[in-house]
Amino acid sequence: MGVAMHCLVVEDDPVIAAHVLDGLRAAGRSADHAATGRAALERLSRARYDAVVLDRMLPDLGGLEVLSAMRAAGDARPPVLVLSALGSLADRIEGLEAGGDDYLAKPFAMEELLARLNAITRRRPGPAEVASLAVGRLVLDPSRHSAAFAGQQALLNRKLYSLLAHMMRHADKVVTRDMLLEHVWGYAFAPTTNIVESNMSRLRTRLLDLGIDPIETQRGHGYVLRSGLCA
């Protein structure tokens, strides 16, 4: 696997924390632990992690508060697997829309947690993702994790950045939901949440802040980013 994945486990239950830490280390990952939300944010400010396993119910800051603080700090932040006893569809959607890359309900199998971590970290930046992308006057800047158009700039979180990058690379072509799940989220299966639709809606809102709306929904097919609407 090359360099070992370095993970942060944010969990206040000592039994669950020990189980996850032991499982990660047995699988060849290195892992640190934080028992509170504030401790997690402090560790994230001092060290670089490849992924975070984040419990939703913490004794000080809630997990979604921690997640919001992470995403507000910029997109040079790691992907996050939200871990929670709150496992309803509404809870999962709330966690994903707050900026989580995936959501796993308790109780869980360690094998599934590892598989989900692999999925959300699989698409690391490669040579084709280092250079800036441009479609017309719409420019995606990897150094700032931002989109710019006509002098306006919008910061994007990790998933919105990857989503827009994929759409821009396939401008004027239909991109299906399954293609986005595979290439942006790393899923080889379709989750039961509306993760693509909710993130696409958020992306279009950010682009509207720039004064453009170049992404069209093709009912029953997918989405198209129209280069002519970026001119």
From TrEMBL:
<dbReference type="InterPro" id="IPR011006">
    <property type="entry name" value="CheY-like_superfamily"/>
</dbReference>
<feature type="DNA-binding region" description="OmpR/PhoB-type">
    <location>
        <begin position="130"/>
        <end position="227"/>
    </location>
</feature>
<dbReference type="InterPro" id="IPR001789">
    <property type="entry name" value="Sig_transdc_resp-reg_receiver"/>
</dbReference>
<feature type="domain" description="Response regulatory">
    <location>
        <begin position="6"/>
        <end position="121"/>
    </location>
</feature>
<dbReference type="InterPro" id="IPR036388">
    <property type="entry name" value="WH-like_DNA-bd_sf"/>
</dbReference>
<protein>
    <submittedName>
        <fullName>Two-component system OmpR family response regulator</fullName>
    </submittedName>
</protein>
<keyword id="KW-0902">Two-component regulatory system</keyword>
<keyword id="KW-0805">Transcription regulation</keyword>
<dbReference type="Pfam" id="PF00486">
    <property type="entry name" value="Trans_reg_C"/>
</dbReference>
<keyword id="KW-0238">DNA-binding</keyword>
<keyword id="KW-0597">Phosphoprotein</keyword>
<dbReference type="InterPro" id="IPR039420">
    <property type="entry name" value="WalR-like"/>
</dbReference>
<dbReference type="Pfam" id="PF00072">
    <property type="entry name" value="Response_reg"/>
</dbReference>
<feature type="domain" description="OmpR/PhoB-type">
    <location>
        <begin position="130"/>
        <end position="227"/>
    </location>
</feature>
<feature type="modified residue" description="4-aspartylphosphate">
    <location>
        <position position="55"/>
    </location>
</feature>
<keyword id="KW-0804">Transcription</keyword>
<dbReference type="InterPro" id="IPR001867">
    <property type="entry name" value="OmpR/PhoB-type_DNA-bd"/>
</dbReference>
